[in-house]
Amino acid sequence: MTKDLPEDLVTGIESIDKQHLTLLQTFDSIIECMESAEPKDEITKLIDFLVSYTNIHLETEEKIMEEQDYKDYELHKREHELFRMKIQTLEKSNFMFRENKKVLNITVRETKKWIMSHVMNTDVKMAAFIKNMPN
Ligand SMILES: [Fe+2]
Ligand SMILES: [Fe+2]
Predict the structure, then answer these.
(1) What is the distance in A from the centroid of ligand 2 to the CA of 80?
(2) Any residues with CB less than 8 A from the CB of 130 and at least 6 apart, and which?
(3) Beta carbons within 8 Å of 70's beta carbon, 6+ residues apart
(4) Residue 124 CA to chain centroid, in angstroms?
(5) From CA 95, how far away is CA 66, in angstroms rounded?
(6) Res 2: pLDDT
(7) Residue-level pLDDT, tens digit, the chain, 135 residues
(8) CA 5 to ligand 2 center in whole angstroms
(9) Taking the domain 11-131, which CATH number applies?
(10) What is the pLDDT of residue 1?
(11) Domain ranges (residues) in the chain
(12) Ligand at shortest distance from the CA of 125
């Protein structure tokens, strides 16, 4: 399943990779919906899912980092706070610009890009540390 994840986004921790794939696929579905004539409710449903799934995902990572006493936990967590804020902004854009898909479109694409960069730089680094921990 995680073979669909771009190579530079693979952390090697199966549970995390699966969640990243789900997050990115949700973004792609939102983009597809925005570009077709899908009713606005469909987009809202997908964004609702994105909001709750983001929380699940970030809590999963934070739990792993805490359990493994990850040295850069605080730094990583601060990026997650930004992550949460970006998802909230996306949710707000959907409500505030109901008639203007352009604003939502920009926000969705920028947020997806930011998340991919977080995965590529911050999550991959964290996973390398966790995988090298003696069991
Ligand atoms: Fe992540
Ligand atoms: Fe992360």
Answers:
(1) 6
(2) 13, 64, 65, 68, 70
(3) 64, 76, 126, 129, 130
(4) 14
(5) 35
(6) 66
(7) 567 899 999 999 999 999 999 999 999 999 999 888 767 789 999 999 999 999 999 999 999 999 999 999 999 999 999 999 999 999 999 988 677 778 889 999 999 999 999 999 999 999 999 988 776
(8) 16
(9) 1.20.120.50
(10) 55
(11) 11-131
(12) 2
Output the six-digit token pair for 104.
Answer: 């939502």
Structure tokens at 19: 């969640």
Output the pLDDT for position 36.
86
Contacts of 80 (CB under 8 A, 6+ apart): 58, 61, 62
- Helices 40-67 and 14-35, axial angle in degrees (round to 10): 160
Instruction: Considering every ligand atom shown, identify the ligand nearest to the alpha carbon of residue 17 and give its number.
Output: 1
Distance 99 CA to ligand 1 centre (A): 32
Tokens at 32, concatenated = 């597809």
Q: At 78, list the tokens.
A: 């601060």
List of residues 6+ apart from 96 with CB closer than 8 A: 103
